């Protein structure tokens, strides 16, 4: 019995070792790109900048947004030729073509310049209906509105507490 237990343990050990070697080989076959995205004017990190990596062979896309310090890291993609695109609202998009080998790690930091044409003002106006048509601090209340109050005692206080923008405080008894 002890002989079979040793064989089983040895078989498990060999299987685990083989699995680890194979998985390490798969990880080593992928590539990684990392870097920092900053603005040209102030040199500050651009949190939320979009980083897209497109495989030029099969069109596979990898993407993410830069973190609060402008850092990004994309990993786990196969070797090949890729187009790197970095964009941020109000800035000129950065494009570059890169080739990655198996297990290659690259650092590509990008500085984006402001796009003067994109920085124009946009004004949106809506007709005076609904919430946009209300005068601040004043709203018309009809008797039928009290029937929609989610309370057994449909009173003015209960109704006012359910309205948007109303905050009530005080003793509720």
Q: Could you please describe the fold and organization of this structure?
A:
By secondary structure, this protein is an alpha/beta fold. Among the domains are: 32-114, Carboxypeptidase-like, regulatory domain (Immunoglobulin-like, Sandwich), CATH 2.60.40; 136-161, no CATH class. It is 21% helix and 28% strand. Strands 1, 4, 7 and 8 form a four-stranded mixed sheet that branches. It has a four-stranded antiparallel sheet with strand order 3-2-5-6, with no helix packed on it. A hairpin with a 5-residue loop joins strand 2 (50-55) and strand 3. The radius of gyration is 30 Å and the shape is elongated. The mean pLDDT is 76.
Index terms:
21% helix; alpha/beta; 4-stranded antiparallel beta sheet; 4-stranded mixed beta sheet; Immunoglobulin-like; elongated; 8 strands; 173 residues; 28% strand
The CATH superfamily of the domain at 32-114 bears the name Carboxypeptidase-like, regulatory domain
Mean of residue pLDDT values: 76
Spatial gap, N to C terminus: 76 Å
Name the shape in a single word.
Answer: elongated
> Compute the gyration radius: what is it?
30 Å
CATH architectural label of the domain at 32-114: Sandwich
Counted by DSSP, the helix tally is 3
- Weakly predicted, low-confidence segments: none
Secondary-structure element string = HEEEEEEEEHH
CATH topology of the domain at 32-114: Immunoglobulin-like
